[in-house]
């Protein structure tokens, strides 16, 4: 048993959890998959709806080539097989927010085939297989809580392009799911194919969970938890569902293959429909659309647009900047973070920059609950701050005070130092004067120190720093104090 | 008045251009005759006032460069017409007014034509006698109590009764050619992809085609030239070089090889049809063409194949009529109840029958045996034609296995009704152009038609052959105006 393995123990039996994800990622595109309506989030209901989106009689879908490029780009980012011929099918079912009475999706012949994603686990890298990626339309939104007697329908989202990215059942723990989603999101953000914004529903997942006794090579019966829209909920749903299944098996029961819903308030999953009640979607090729075909040149052109992806960037950071794999992983996980980092280190020490970004800056962003591209401190000013430390102008302690100051309005640290006189005291004569006074004021402790209480050295340093309002150059204080005492 | 309504479309265009008659003259004559022909029940929506206003507008500022200068035309009510009620012959769309125009009708108006009104048709174009329309059955001007054929029955009847100088229908399995044959008129179904399907209420997307219905072949060529266009709003529209069908029309068919498929000599075919076909061959020989016996071995599978493919697509295409967004709605206890009530009351029996057949053949467990197999057979049927066209330039067959029947005669026997399309359906399955021209009369003096089938995109070829035959056949449509009081 590996150390970081996630297992569920019941009655002395250890169960392994097997997870596969179907992620629905909204394609970053100004217009919809088969119409030219806008896709802007948060617009007034039914203001981004064309006749095609609302399925008026005689309206026909026309593929948006940009969305096709985005799907291919994502496929390349997932090191996947790109299918030069794919087919759009109709998935037929009735629902109020599905105007056509069918969703245009890809069934047997998706645009992207097998690929993979590498997760950075504490125990080392783990490759998660990607089964496929296909393009499909999103549905509209049924709103049940505005009118007491009717359901209202907003079709703004109807027809928006989604990529359904299906993983192989290679995930084994809620933590791996966390890393998988983050990595997938990171890759798509690097590529600019999905903004990965889970609050706005740009990234959601159906989670397939099954359990099996440790050592078994057969998969257990899986349940599918539909439409979970945050990593935390995915993890909670998996934990609940896996434990439910283990308990059921230990009681001698059997798992029914079914679709379940995660109730975020009760923190539990409940049955939505059984396999017998499963919809018969009556998939068939959409006769309004020709097979989607492109040539090698199309793929090659897109390949040239692929930027440096997280894994490559991480390797480069480790090699070029001598960062630890841990630091590099953190710094590349988000495209904006990596950009910020690279801006700071243009003129500053790499190690210090990495520390300040992953330390103070992350804490600040966390506290304010904002993303790095909204950081109140610009990379230029953080770079200046780091340089003030490097050249001995200020102490690390002052730097922290300065950092707090800077977070209120992105001020130039050099100016704050000048205005507030925070410059480090490095004049030996001035320091000697302070130190002499500290020694004079504390004869008892001087006596004790001289009789062997070495630990009191810190007390003297502290007194000197206090007397200098923290501005004394700590290294020089150390040197002078040692001599004087 | 008699003079004007007896003129062909081509003659009208000529007389308008030479300023012998005005658009107002033509329009008012057709309006007057239409008004006195209510008994035939050809119109669902009359736009006479607008038509007259438009004709006056045309006369005030005539543009004789247009191909249909100031010509009034009534069209099948399957075409969406901006701000004019469009019902597809169904209760479910009984009050539907589109805010958009179909490409084909837009082409008509761009060529100077004026909308006279919307013509009755079988509900969603499903029928062969125009008896399934929610707006009542259409009578043929040929004889009292006779069906005009379907689904473009209103178009055929209006054309034969001289309520419009020409018209357009749609043809999914014979819906232009069969009614043309029944009413002694010319009807052409173009190659799939020639005319845009944008804005035509869909029945079976992979089979539906718009086409001209006219009094003679010359008119047919002119109208085809107007309506056939590449349209990027229809993904199945084909961008090919369209000839000038009208000016390129000629009778030089010397040496053309015409195939006679032995499989079209079906059991129980009336002797008069047999005779008609023989005559057709003679006419062709007289024109200098060569008659060649050919085989289309999979012909007998065409009808069953059609009655799987067409209902399958229809069941999905008609899912959008759910009472949620537009059209007819019956309130219900909940969403499902609303759907059930709306669709049960909104659709007629034949439409329901086809939705059920289509849903069945796409269901899991039956999909492979029906839909998938039908697709394979469809390919074989197409291959038969490809093979035949290696040897011949066109194929001659009867248009229908019988002449027009009485109202009500086949309504209780769907299979016998479906058999009407036995000679026309293979052409749709193979996506080929086909034209029906009047070729003789049966013992009751009911018209009978012959069909010419061409190679893909060779509308010009079959038009030329039809043009030559037309002269030899010298068919005269004699109606007594019995329906006018």
Bin the helical content of chain A.
25-40%
The CATH class of one domain in chain B is identified as Alpha Beta
Head-to-tail CA distance between termini of chain A: 58 Å
Report the CATH superfamily of one domain in chain B: Amidase signature (AS) domain
Question: Could you estimate the helical fraction of the residues of chain B in percent?
Answer: 25-40%
How would you describe what is shown here?
The complex is a heterodimer of chains A (about 475) and B (about 475). In chain A, about 40% of the residues lie in helices and about 20% in strands. Chain A is of the alpha+beta class. In chain A, strands 1, 2, 6, 7, 10, 11, 12, 13 and 14 form a nine-stranded mixed beta sheet that branches. In chain A, strand 6 (about 115-120) and strand 7 form a beta hairpin. Helices cover about 35% and strands about 15% of the residues of chain B. Chain B has an eight-stranded mixed beta sheet with strand order 4-6-5-10-11-9-7-8, with helices on both faces. In chain B, helix 10 packs across helix 12 (about 350-360). The mean pLDDT of chain B is about 95. The chains are: A alpha+beta (about 475), B alpha/beta (about 475). The interface between A and B is large, with 30 and 43 residues.
Secondary structure topology:
The complex is a heterodimer of chains A (485) and B (485).
Chain A: E1 7-10, E2 13-26, H1 65-77, E3 85-86, E4 89-92, E5 102-105, E6 115-121, E7 124-137, E8 141-143, E9 152-154, E10 161-167, H2 174-191, E11 203-213, E12 223-228, H3 231-250, E13 258-263, E14 268-274, E15 284-285, E16 292-293, H4 296-303, H5 310-321, H6 325-332, H7 335-344, H8 350-368, H9 379-390, H10 396-406, H11 413-420, H12 428-441, H13 443-450, H14 457-467, H15 474-484
Parallel strand pairs in A: 12-13
Antiparallel strand pairs in A: 1-2, 2-10, 2-11, 3-16, 4-5, 4-15, 6-7, 7-10, 8-9, 11-12, 13-14
Helix pairs in contact in A: 2-3, 5-6, 7-9, 9-10, 12-14, 12-15, 14-15
Chain B: H1 2-6, H2 9-17, H3 23-35, E1 43-46, H4 48-60, E2 72-76, H5 103-110, E3 114-119, H6 153-160, E4 167-171, H7 177-183, E5 186-189, E6 209-214, H8 217-227, E7 257-261, H9 271-286, E8 290-294, H10 302-317, H11 335-346, H12 349-362, H13 368-388, E9 394-398, H14 414-418, H15 425-429, E10 434-441, E11 447-454, H16 459-473
Parallel strand pairs in B: 2-3, 7-8, 7-9
Antiparallel strand pairs in B: 1-3, 4-6, 5-6, 5-10, 9-11, 10-11
Helix pairs in contact in B: 3-4, 6-7, 8-16, 9-16, 10-12, 10-13
């Amino acid at each position: 048993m590996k150390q970081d393995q996630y297992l569920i123990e019941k009655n002395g039996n250890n169960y392994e959890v097997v997870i596969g994800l179907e992620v629905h990622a909204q394609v970053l595109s100004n217009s919809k998959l088969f119409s030219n309506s806008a896709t802007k989030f948060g617009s007034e209901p039914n203001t981004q709806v064309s006749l095609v989106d609302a399925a008026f009689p005689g309206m026909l879908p026309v593929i948006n080539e940009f969305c096709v490029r985005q799907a291919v780009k994502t496929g390349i980012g997932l090191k996947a097989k790109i299918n030069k011929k794919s087919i759009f099918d109709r998935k037929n079912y009735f629902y109020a927010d599905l105007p056509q009475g069918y969703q245009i999706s890809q069934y047997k012949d998706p645009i992207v085939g097998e690929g993979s994603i590498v997760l950075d686990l504490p125990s080392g890298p783990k490759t998660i297989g990607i089964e496929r990626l296909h393009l499909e339309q999103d549905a509209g939104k049924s709103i049940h809580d505005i009118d007491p007697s009717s359901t209202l329908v907003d079709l703004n989202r109807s027809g928006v392009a989604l990529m359904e990215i299906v993983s192989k059942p290679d995930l084994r723990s809620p933590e791996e799911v966390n890393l998988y989603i983050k990595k997938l999101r990171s890759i798509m953000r690097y590529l600019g194919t999905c903004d990965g914004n889970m609050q706005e529903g740009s990234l959601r997942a159906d989670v397939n969970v099954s359990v099996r006794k440790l050592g078994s090579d057969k998969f257990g019966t899986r349940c599918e938890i539909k439409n979970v829209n945050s990593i935390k909920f995915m993890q909670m749903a998996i934990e609940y569902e896996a434990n439910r299944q283990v308990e059921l098996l230990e009681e001698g029961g059997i798992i029914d293959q079914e679709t379940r819903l995660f109730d975020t308030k009760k923190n539990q999953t409940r049955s939505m429909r059984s396999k017998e009640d499963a919809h018969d979607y009556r998939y068939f090729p959409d006769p309004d659309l020709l097979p989607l075909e492109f040539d090698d040149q199309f793929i090659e052109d897109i390949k040239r647009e692929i930027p440096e992806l997280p894994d490559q960037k991480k390797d480069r950071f480790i090699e070029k900047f001598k960062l630890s794999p841990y630091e590099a992983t953190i710094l590349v996980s988000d495209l904006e973070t990596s950009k910020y980092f690279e801006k700071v280190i243009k003129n500053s020490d790499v190690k210090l920059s990495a520390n300040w970004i992953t330390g103070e800056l992350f804490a600040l962003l966390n506290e304010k609950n904002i993303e790095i591209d909204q950081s109140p401190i610009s990379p230029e000013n953080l770079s200046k701050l780091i340089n003030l430390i490097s050249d001995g102008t200020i102490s690390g302690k002052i730097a922290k005070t300065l950092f707090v100051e800077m977070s209120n309005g992105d001020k130039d640290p050099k100016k704050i130092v000048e205005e507030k006189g925070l410059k480090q005291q490095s004049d030996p004569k001035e320091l000697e004067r302070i130190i002499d006074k500290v020694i004079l004021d504390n004869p008892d402790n001087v006596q004790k120190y001289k009789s062997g209480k070495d630990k009191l050295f810190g007390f003297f340093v502290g007194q000197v720093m206090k007397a200098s309002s923290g501005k004394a150059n700590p290294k020089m204080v150390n040197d002078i104090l040692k001599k004087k005492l | 008045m008699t003079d004007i309504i007896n003129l062909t479309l081509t003659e009208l265009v000529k007389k308008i251009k030479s300023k012998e008659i005005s658009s107002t003259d033509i329009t008012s004559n057709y309006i007057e005759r239409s008004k006195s022909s209510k008994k035939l029940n050809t119109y669902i929506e009359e736009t006479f006032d607008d038509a007259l206003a438009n004709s006056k507008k045309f006369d005030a500022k005539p543009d004789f460069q247009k191909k249909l200068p100031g010509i009034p035309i009534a069209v099948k009510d399957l075409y969406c017409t901006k701000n004019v009620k469009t019902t597809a012959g169904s209760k479910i769309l009984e009050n539907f007014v589109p805010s958009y125009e179909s490409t084909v009708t837009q082409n008509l108006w761009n060529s100077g034509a004026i909308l006279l009104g919307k013509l009755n048709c079988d509900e969603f174009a499903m029928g062969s006698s125009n008896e399934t329309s929610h707006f009542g059955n259409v009578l043929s001007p040929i004889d009292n109590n006779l069906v005009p054929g379907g689904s473009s029955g209103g178009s055929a009847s209006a054309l034969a009764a001289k309520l419009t100088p020409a018209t357009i229908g749609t043809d999914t399995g014979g819906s232009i050619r069969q009614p043309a044959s029944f009413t002694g008129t010319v009807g052409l179904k173009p190659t799939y992809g020639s005319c845009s399907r944008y804005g035509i209420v869909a029945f079976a997307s992979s089979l539906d085609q718009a086409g001209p219905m006219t009094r003679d072949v010359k008119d047919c060529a002119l109208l085809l030239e107007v309506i056939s266009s590449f349209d990027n709003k229809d993904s199945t529209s084909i961008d090919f070089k369209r000839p000038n069908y009208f000016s390129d029309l000629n009778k030089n068919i010397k040496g053309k090889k015409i195939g006679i498929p032995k499989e079209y000599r079906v059991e129980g075919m009336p002797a008069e049809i047999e005779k008609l076909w023989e005559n057709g061959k003679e006419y062709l020989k007289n024109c200098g063409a060569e008659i060649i016996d050919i085989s289309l071995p999979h012909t007998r599978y065409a009808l069953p194949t059609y009655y799987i493919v067409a209902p399958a697509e229809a069941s999905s295409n008609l899912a959008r009529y759910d009472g949620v967004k537009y059209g007819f709605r019956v309130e219900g206890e909940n969403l499902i109840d609303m759907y059930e009530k709306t669709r049960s009351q909104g659709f007629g029996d034949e439409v329901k029958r086809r939705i059920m057949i289509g849903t069945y053949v796409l269901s899991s467990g039956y999909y492979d045996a029906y839909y998938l197999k039908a697709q394979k057979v469809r390919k074989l049927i197409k291959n038969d034609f490809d093979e035949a066209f290696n040897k011949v330039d066109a194929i001659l067959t009867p248009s229908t296995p019988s002449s027009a029947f009485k109202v009500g005669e086949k309504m209780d026997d769907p299979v016998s009704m479906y058999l009407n399309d036995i000679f026309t359906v293979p052409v749709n399955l193979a996506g080929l152009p086909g034209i029906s021209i009047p070729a003789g009369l049966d013992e009751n003096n009911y018209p009978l038609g012959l069909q010419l089938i061409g190679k893909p995109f060779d509308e010009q070829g079959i038009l030329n052959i039809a043009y030559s035959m037309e002269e030899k056949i010298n068919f005269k449509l004699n109606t007594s105006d019995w329906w006018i009081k």
